[in-house]
């Protein structure tokens, strides 16, 4: 679902956005009037609530915590393109005493974890611990630990990884950081199913971020570049010229890419898709112009460029999504050829794009 990049100046986009916001406001009015008290008293009318939520979008799931202070988590789960909209929806929630609202399923306290995992799995969990380390693409590798004679199959292993990771670390860490590592066995308790599990995970997150540049891209003056090559599945060669090989590797290989793994400054990484340039100097001129204009205005910077068999790309870092209109203005002033688009690498921004000049069709599916 395109949401962040809808154009407030375009009447169709403005109307689309208002229609969705009207649905959201109707949902929250109904929640406050018809459902909040029922959930608090433990007698919710689930079917009616599901219908109310589905009237906004059938792709949005929910979970209500059984704790004294109720938590309503709204999440698109695998429909990640809905995530920016769901975050706005949660941001419009009313202030209700005894309630909190979030756009990701939160983690559970350690003392409740085993019971909650068993409930989600539908059986007693077999894992007795976990070990964390830095894995590929800047992720945190979570290796489950099982009893010595336990031999979980691939399906059981995958289910326990997802459920344990979500319960212990929360849905946001699971979606953006966690990676299923190799299982191991242990005599006795083993692993780290203790209060240190989350701390161990977050230590690995901190270790990954320490590998990242210590200034945002608007102030990153590094001129070091690496040339990388890959074979295109349809034939031909893809050439990447990058100032950050770790970042480019993840952008190129990880279909669940998350910008938070590659910036200490909450930057968002995007790519400008352009027609194929036979004269590399023309693309270089656009690239240089963009880098100067983005950095001068403190909006971000260019991280590299790509040459594909049928098109070209310029990779950029955007420091704040709240300044997307300014980024769009810079791109419009950069002399882009027709049929150019800005798209995003993050899995939860897969539906977001700008077209230059403005179009209603969206970018071709190159990736």
What does this entry look like structurally?
The protein is an alpha+beta fold and 367 residues long. The chain contains ten helices and 14 strands. It has helices at residues 11-40, 46-54, 83-91, 110-121, 154-169, 171-176, 197-210, 245-253, 280-296, 324-332, and strands at 61-64, 70-75, 99-102, 129-134, 140-147, 178-180, 184-186, 226-231, 237-242, 268-275, 300-307, 311-318, 340-344, 353-356. It has a seven-stranded antiparallel β-sheet with strand order 8-9-11-12-10-13-14, with helices on one face. α3 links the parallel β2 and β3 (99-102). α4 packs antiparallel against α5 (154-169). It is globular and about 65 Å long. The protein starts with 10 loop residues before the first helix and ends in an 11-residue tail after the last strand. 34% of the residues are buried.
Question: Treating each run of at least 4 consecutive H or I residues as one helix, how many helices?
Answer: 10
Average pLDDT taken over every residue: 92
Gross morphology: globular
The share of residues in helices is: 25-40%
| Helix-strand pattern | HHEEHEHEEHHEEHEEHEHEEHEE
End-to-end C-alpha gap: 18 Å
Q: How many strands in all? A: 14
- Computed over alpha carbons, the radius of gyration is 23 Å
Tell me about the biggest sheet?
7 strands, antiparallel
Assembly state here?
A: single chain
> How much of the residues is beta strand, in percent?
15-25%
Query: What structural category arises from helix and sheet content?
Result: alpha+beta
Strand order of the largest sheet: 8-9-11-12-10-13-14
Contiguous low-pLDDT stretches (5 residues minimum) are: none
């Amino acid at each position: 679902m395109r949401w962040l990049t809808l154009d407030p100046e375009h009447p169709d986009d403005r109307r689309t956005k208002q229609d969705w916001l009207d649905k959201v406001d109707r949902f929250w009015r109904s929640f406050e009037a018809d459902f909040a008290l029922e959930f608090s008293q433990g007698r919710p009318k689930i079917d009616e609530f599901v219908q109310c939520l589905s009237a906004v979008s059938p792709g949005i799931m929910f979970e209500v915590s059984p704790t004294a202070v109720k938590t309503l988590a709204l999440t698109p789960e695998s429909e990640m393109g809905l995530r920016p909209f769901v975050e706005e929806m949660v941001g419009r929630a009313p202030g209700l005493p005894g309630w909190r609202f979030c756009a990701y399923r939160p983690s559970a306290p350690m003392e409740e974890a085993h019971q909650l995992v068993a409930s989600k799995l539908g059986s007693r969990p077999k894992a007795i611990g976990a070990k964390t380390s830095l894995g590929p693409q800047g992720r945190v590798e979570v290796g489950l630990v099982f009893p010595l004679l336990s031999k979980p199959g691939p399906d059981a292993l995958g289910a326990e990884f997802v459920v344990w990771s979500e319960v212990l670390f929360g849905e946001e860490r699971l979606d953006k950081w966690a990676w299923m590592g190799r299982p191991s066995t242990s005599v006795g308790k083993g692993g780290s199913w203790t209060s240190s599990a989350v701390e161990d995970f977050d230590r690995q997150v901190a270790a990954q971020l320490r590998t990242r540049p210590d200034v945002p891209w608007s102030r990153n003056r590094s001129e070091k570049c690496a040339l990388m090559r890959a074979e295109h599945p349809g034939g031909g060669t893809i050439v990447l010229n990058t100032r950050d090989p770790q970042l480019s590797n993840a952008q190129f290989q990880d279909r669940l890419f998350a910008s938070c793994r590659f910036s200490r400054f909450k930057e968002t990484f995007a790519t400008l898709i352009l027609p194929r340039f036979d004269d590399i100097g023309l693309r270089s001129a656009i690239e240089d112009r963009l880098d100067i204009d983005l950095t001068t205005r403190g909006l971000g910077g260019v991280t590299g460029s790509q040459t594909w068999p049928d098109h070209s790309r310029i990779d950029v870092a955007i420091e704040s999504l709240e300044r997307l209109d300014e980024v769009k203005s810079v791109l419009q002033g950069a002399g882009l050829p027709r049929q150019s688009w800005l798209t995003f690498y993050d899995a939860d921004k897969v539906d977001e794009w700008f077209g230059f000049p403005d179009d209603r069709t969206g970018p071709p599916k190159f990736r």
